Every structure is written in structure tokens, then in C-alpha cells.
């Protein structure tokens, strides 16, 4: 097995929204804001080369939305999904599976693209199976008012219409294994219904793709929960459960949204679970 970080692009979000009830005087120490109160974020995806499978976890925002849409998110940097795949030695047509932690636009927007004459949309990975779970799919296509702006129809309909959409089967609570893909899954419901975090056995390590359960290093303290979470009190208990496990088992946490920290480990301290070590992907994916 080989693992490759796929940088799909950088953006910014309001720091207050990203840290909920935590005061700016505290969160800006780890996530400094610009003059507009925006903090720097990444859409860092993960590519798994496993035998004859090439599995891409999340796909970033994509590039099909309008300039007005992207104007809200202050895109920055030169990363793109295609250039990152090329750097790893692959093309999007090589991808056999696209696994989506959840279907918010910044996690699945790159899964769909304009068609050739820009009259409609098509899947961006024509040879891939697309993976979500049935509970989350229903949650996304019948969105609540709080999340409606994050579940975009143009991101979802082409997956279903193409016939490439598949549902992960099995027990959808806490930690589950999946027969469809060669990794475990930690299910988390606080951010959105049935978010799926892959737990990948890599050599002598377990690498966990953290999605939106732990967006950045600054979010490690348990009460530091995003304002975007639909069930923040549930996130509290899920984070506490997960971080205690991560510290005990020395899990390697792959951060999707932290623009400046790629992989971390955590440890138990007198103040609770805190940062242990930070790593570059090349340090771990040797």
C-alpha cells in the first residue's frame, strides 16, 4: 500500500464560525485571522494505492462554481486536484473509487464537473465507484435548513444519475469495518449525519483521515467545536471518545483542513488530550 496527500486547493472561512463559542483571543493564537477575520484552511485529500485499487478520499471544492460563489471563500495558493494527482503520478481516469467522508461542497465538489459544452454536469471520475452511506445520502438530498447551502444539488445528482453511486454497508455507529474497501470507519454524527472517517492500516501505523471531526490543530481541546456542526454536544462526546483512543493507541491523524499541519499525534496531559507531534506527509508515507 502507498499513500499520497492530494492538495485540492486552499480557502478561508470566518474564524468565529470555525471555533463556535471559543473567543477570538484564544483561537487566534493557533489560527491567526486576517483583517476580515478569515483563517487559512486547506482541502487536503488522501489517495490510497492498494493493489489494483486507487481510492481517493474526498475531492475538495472543485472548480465548477461561479466566481461569486468562490468569492465568499477567498481561494488562495496554487494547489489543484489534477496537479496534485499528476505530481503523485496519476490521472483522474486512474481512480477506481471516490470515498466521500460527507457531502458538504468543500468535501465532494471536485467529484463532479461541467460537461464538455457546459450545459450540465457529469462525474469527474468516469471509471470510479462513488462511496457514501445511505443515511447520509438521504440527509443530503433532503437537507435541513441549516445545511442546505452546503449540500448542492449539482454535486449530488450526477453521482446518482451516472449509476456510479454506492453505499457503504455494515453497522453505522462508532467504529465499523467495511468489506467494500480495505479500511475501518469511525462514524461521527455531530458535524452532520453519519460522517465517515477512514482508519487506514499503513505498515505499523494507523492513519485516520479526520474530515470535520478535527479540522485543525487548534480544534484539539474538546470544547473547541465549529459553529457549523449540527449537533455540537454530540461532537463533544465524539471528539472526547476519539481523542482518548487516538492518544492511547498512538493514531496518526491526517488533517484535511489544516493548511499548515498535515499529520499529528496526540497525548494525554493534565489538561486533557493535547498535541504530541506534528509530521509532514513524506515523513510518514515513506
TrEMBL record:
The domain of life is: Bacteria
Calcium keyword on record: no
* Gene Ontology molecular functions: hydrolase activity; metal ion binding
Name the keywords, alphabetized. Hydrolase, Metal-binding, Zinc
Q: Which family does it belong to?
A: Belongs to the metallo-beta-lactamase superfamily.
Organism from which the protein derives: Spongiivirga citrea
Q: Name one Pfam family in it.
A: Lactamase_B
Which InterPro entries does this one have?
MBL_superfamily_lactonases, Metallo-B-lactamas, RibonucZ/Hydroxyglut_hydro
Name assigned to this protein: MBL fold metallo-hydrolase
Gene3D superfamilies this protein is in? Ribonuclease Z/Hydroxyacylglutathione hydrolase-like
CDD domains noted in UniProt: metallo-hydrolase-like_MBL-fold (cd16281)
Q: Does the keyword Metal-binding apply?
A: yes
Residue ranges occupied by any Metallo-beta-lactamase domain in the UniProt entry? 42-257
Amino acid at each position: 500500500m502507498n499513500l499520497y496527500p492530494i492538495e485540492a486547493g486552499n480557502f478561508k472561512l470566518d474564524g468565529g464560525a470555525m471555533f463556535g463559542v471559543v473567543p477570538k483571543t484564544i483561537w487566534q493564537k493557533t489560527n491567526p485571522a486576517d483583517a476580515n477575520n478569515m483563517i487559512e484552511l486547506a482541502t487536503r485529500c488522501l489517495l490510497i494505492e492498494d493493489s489494483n485499487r486507487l481510492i481517493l478520499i474526498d475531492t475538495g471544492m472543485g472548480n465548477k462554481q461561479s466566481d461569486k460563489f468562490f468569492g465568499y471563500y477567498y481561494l488562495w495558493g496554487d494547489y489543484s486536484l489534477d496537479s496534485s494527482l499528476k505530481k503523485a503520478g496519476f490521472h483522474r481516469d486512474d481512480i477506481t473509487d471516490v470515498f466521500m467522508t460527507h457531502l458538504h461542497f468543500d468535501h465532494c465538489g471536485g467529484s463532479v464537473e461541467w460537461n464538455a459544452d457546459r450545459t450540465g454536469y457529469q462525474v469527474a471520475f468516469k471509471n470510479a465507484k462513488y462511496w457514501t452511506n445511505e443515511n447520509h445520502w438521504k440527509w443530503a438530498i433532503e437537507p435541513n435548513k441549516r445545511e442546505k447551502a452546503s449540500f448542492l444539488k449539482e454535486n449530488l445528482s450526477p453521482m446518482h444519475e451516472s449509476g456510479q453511486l454506492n453505499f457503504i454497508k455494515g453497522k453505522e455507529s462508532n467504529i465499523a469495518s467495511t468489506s467494500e474497501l480495505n479500511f475501518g470507519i469511525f462514524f461521527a454524527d455531530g458535524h452532520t449525519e453519519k460522517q465517515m472517517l477512514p482508519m487506514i492500516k499503513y505498515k505499523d501505523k494507523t492513519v485516520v483521515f479526520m474530515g470535520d471531526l478535527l479540522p485543525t490543530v487548534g480544534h484539539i481541546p474538546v470544547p473547541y467545536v465549529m459553529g457549523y456542526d449540527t449537533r455540537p454536544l454530540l461532537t463533544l462526546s465524539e471528539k472526547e471518545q476519539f481523542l482518548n483512543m487516538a492518544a492511547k493507541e498512538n493514531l496518526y491523524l491526517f488533517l484535511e483542513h489544516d493548511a499548515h499541519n498535515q499529520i499529528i499525534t496526540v497525548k494525554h496531559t493534565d489538561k486533557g488530550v493535547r498535541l504530541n507531534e506534528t509530521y509532514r506527509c513524506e515523513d510518514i508515507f515513506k
